[in-house]
Protein 1
Amino acid sequence: MTRSYFTNLQDITIQNLKTAKHSIVIAVAWINFNVYFQLLSELLNRRVSVKIIINNDQNNYGYIGMINVLKDKGALIRPINAFGIM
C-alpha cells in the first residue's frame, strides 16, 4: 500500500527506517546526515543493506566525512548529476 504524508515527515521516515529488516533504498536530492547518520550506522550494523542516491553537490559534500564512514561500513552511496529537479 502506498501512503502520502504531508506533516511530521522526519519522524515518519525515522520510524519506518527503524523497522527495516533487509534493505533500504533512498533517492533524495539532499539528506541531513546529522539527523540520519546514527540510524543508518545502526542499520548497517544489523546487516541491513543501505543504498542511497543523492545529488552531486555542495549540500551533500558538506557531509563527506559521514558519507565515507557509511561507505566503509558497506553502504552504497552514489552522488549523481541530476539535471532539473530530482
Protein 2
Amino acid sequence: DAEDRLAADPGLRHLEHEHRSYVRQGEYASGLRPWVERFGLDRLHVVWSDDLFGSPQPAFDGVCRFLGLPTHERSAWEVWNASSAPPPDDAVVLRLREHYAPHDAALAALLGREPPWSARGPA
C-alpha cells in the first residue's frame, strides 16, 4: 500500500519503497510525464544511461550544448558502481521485457524516440 499512501501525501517519504521498488522505478514515462507536461519537452534533456556509460564524452557534450555551455574534453571518465553480478536468467529477462513493453512504448511516445533497451530497438 506504499504507492497509495505516497500518492495521497506527496510529502511522505517511504524508505522501503525508495530502496526496494526496482521494477516501478524502471517505468520511466510515468516519472517523466509530469516534467514534460509542466515544462515542455524542449526544456528537458534526457540522456540514455547506455549513451552516458558507453560513450560519455558525446553524452556530456550533448548536455553542455543543451545548457548553452562550452564543451570540453575530459581526459578520463571514471566508472562508479560497476556491477560484477551475473546476468539474470532468461525467464527473468522475458518477464521484465513483457512487463516493460507498454512502459517503453509510452516512453518512446513521450520522447519521440525509442529507448535503446527496448525490444523494438532504437528508432
Protein 3
Amino acid sequence: AYLTRTGKLPPENLFKETHPAPGQLPQNAKQLTTGVLPDSIIFDFVDAKDDRARADAAELWRDYWLPDEGWAVKIEEVRTEVDHVALRCWMSRPSIVGGGYMLIARLPAEEAGAYTARMEVTIFGRISQMQYENIGGLPYYRLIIEEASVLR
C-alpha cells in the first residue's frame, strides 16, 4: 500500500510523466503524483528483508522528482559539507524500528546561511538514494534528495 494525503493509490497512479516548461524539471523527467508522501517511498525500503531487497526498493524510486506541492518538513540540523549544504530532517514514525528515518535535502553550498534548525520548510528535488546502516543494533534509514530547492 502507498500512503497519500487522500488515501491509497494503485501503483499505476503513483507516477506521472512530466514535460516541464524550460527552466523547471529536465526534459522527460519522472515525477511523483500529487499527494505521494515520503513515507510512501521509504516504507518499501524499510520493509525489505535483506540488502538485495533494499537495493531493489531504492532503485524503484531513484530519480523520481518530488510532487509539485513538495514535502513539508522541519529541519533538525543544517550541515555544511564540501560541495553542498545538507538539511537534515528527522521523520518520526513509531511504526519503523528505530523510531523513524532521516530525510536529507542537499542544496548548493552558497545557501548555507539561509536555513537553521527548527525551521519548517517545503522541499522540492529528486530522490537520489536511500541508505541503510545498523548503528548499535538499530536500523538507521536515510532518504536523500538531490538538486533540492526549498520554499520557506
Protein 4
Amino acid sequence: MAHPNEELTRRAYDAFSRGDADTLRQLFADDAVFHEPGRNPVSGDHQGIDQILAFFGLLAQRSGGTFRVPLHDVVANDEHAVGLHVAEGEREGRRLHSLQTVVLHVRDGRITEAWAHHYDQHATDEFWA
C-alpha cells in the first residue's frame, strides 16, 4: 500500500497533466508556496494557490501547451514527498528535456510548499527565456 503523501503527489501530477485546476486547488493549501528556481520569466516564489495556478498556466501558455512532466517515481514520508520527473516541452524552435525533482512539504493532507530542482538549470532558463 502506498504512503498517503505518495498518493497525494501522484494525484497532483495527474491533475497538472490534465490541467485540472479544481483538483489542484483541493491538493494545495490556500497559502502554499511554489519555489521555481532560475533566472527566467517563470522563476520565483509563487505564493498562494491562485499564483501557483497562474504559474502553471504560464508554463502552458509559454510552451504552446506542449509542457509535460511525465512522472518517473515518488518517494514519500509523513512530512514530505519527492516527485521525480522529466520536464518536456517545445518553445520557439527550442526543446526542453530535463530531469527534475519537486520536493513537497505536506501538512494535514495538503501540499504547503514545493521546491523545484532542475538537473540543468541553465538549459531550463534558456528554454523559458
